[in-house]
């Protein structure tokens, strides 16, 4: 039996869409990589006006993410081939589905549909795999009050899409880049110590040099580092690779003073125990690093194409 959460009568709030410039750039680059001089097979074999219909069908249970990438691939491929193409999404991103479900319908000139096929599948399979794995982590901590969050351990060039997929699975996004939050990690603290600056003084000085709206996150890997960090008035303490006992102790020390995040080697088997220590956030690099592409297929509807050719 699949552990993937099933759809409920009341759907969860839809995750925000991937920004169109980011989506278009990714899909355009992927299409250029896959057909740098065109699709030799389709262009030699198929007349330009032959049309094709296809369905995006699930072969396993999962959670959908990336249907906009399918649409973008078909539309851009249609433009590149001088043809036409459109996608009708039957399920929205963030929706759970079962094996055999039809997720979307694709229609257009055959050259456009076939040029888009592999790129569309690569993206929707990858993103749905991330959404599905995230949903399993979210389900595992249900009732604890802890959030599941991603990290910056994303595929280069695909961060906007992969973080969207995490949202589709019910997870939260950590910082998007080095530019949008202050996160002091172990190497930063080591450099401070080597320069003879104590942790509390260094962090207080940091606070004076950033805007009042910027949150400060500090990673510690030992419990004895925590008091000096909390004394600086940081917003979030990230307890990295702590034992369950040390996590509980860290939560108690930080209560009412900072948000507490746990990270480091957390798996589906261990995430519930980590969440039950009382941490506010559990960040999991595996959401994007270990997700397996979901088995989805884009199958040409031969009967629909026969009807189009014969007028039946």
Automatic annotation (TrEMBL):
It is an enzyme of class 2 (transferase). Residues 130-299 form the Quinolinate phosphoribosyl transferase C-terminal domain. Its EC number is 2.4.2.19. It catalyses: nicotinate beta-D-ribonucleotide + CO2 + diphosphate = quinolinate + 5-phospho-alpha-D-ribose 1-diphosphate + 2 H(+). InterPro entries: Aldolase_TIM (IPR013785), NadC (IPR004393), NadC/ModD (IPR027277), Nicotinate_pribotase-like_C (IPR036068), Quinolinate_PRibosylTase_N_sf (IPR037128), Quinolinate_PRibosylTrfase_C (IPR002638), Quinolinate_PRibosylTrfase_N (IPR022412). The keyword Glycosyltransferase applies. The keyword Transferase applies. Residues 39-128 form the Quinolinate phosphoribosyl transferase N-terminal domain. It comes from the Bacteria. Pathway: Cofactor biosynthesis; NAD(+) biosynthesis; nicotinate D-ribonucleotide from quinolinate: step 1/1. Keywords: Glycosyltransferase, Pyridine nucleotide biosynthesis, Transferase. Belongs to the NadC/ModD family. Involved in the catabolism of quinolinic acid (QA). This is nicotinate-nucleotide diphosphorylase (carboxylating). It comes from Kineococcus glutinatus. The lineage of its organism: Bacteria, Bacillati, Actinomycetota, Actinomycetes, Kineosporiales.
């Amino acid at each position: 039996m699949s552990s993937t959460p099933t759809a409920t009568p009341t759907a969860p709030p839809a995750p925000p869409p991937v920004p169109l410039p980011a989506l278009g750039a990714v899909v355009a680059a992927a299409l250029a990589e896959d057909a740098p001089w065109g699709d030799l097979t389709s262009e030699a074999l198929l007349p330009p006006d032959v049309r094709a219909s296809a369905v995006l069908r699930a072969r396993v249970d999962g959670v959908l993410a990336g249907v906009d990438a399918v649409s973008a691939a078909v539309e851009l491929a249609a433009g590149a081939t001088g043809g036409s193409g459109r996608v009708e999404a039957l399920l929205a991103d963030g929706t759970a589905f079962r094996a055999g479900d039809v997720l979307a319908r694709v229609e257009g000139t055959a050259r456009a549909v076939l040029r888009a096929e592999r790129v569309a599948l690569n993206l929707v399979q990858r993103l749905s795999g991330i959404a599905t794995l995230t949903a399993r982590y979210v389900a595992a901590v249900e009732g604890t009050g802890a959030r599941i969050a991603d990290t910056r351990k994303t595929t280069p060039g695909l961060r906007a899409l992969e973080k969207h997929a995490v949202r589709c699975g019910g997870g939260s996004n950590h910082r998007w880049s080095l530019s949008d939050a202050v996160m002091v990690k172990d190497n930063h603290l080591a450099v401070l110590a080597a320069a003879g600056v104590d942790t509390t003084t260094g962090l207080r000085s940091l606070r004076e040099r950033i805007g009042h709206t910027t949150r400060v996150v500090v990673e510690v890997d030992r419990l004895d580092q925590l008091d000096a960090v909390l004394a600086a008035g940081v917003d979030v303490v990230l307890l990295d690779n702590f034992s369950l006992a040390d996590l509980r102790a860290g939560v108690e020390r930080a209560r009412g003073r900072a948000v507490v995040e746990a990270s480091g080697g957390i798996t589906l088997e261990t995430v519930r125990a980590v969440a039950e220590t009382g941490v506010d956030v559990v960040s999991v690099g595996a959401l994007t690093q270990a997700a397996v592409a979901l088995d989805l297929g884009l199958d040409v509807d031969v009967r629909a194409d026969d009807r189009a050719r014969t007028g039946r």
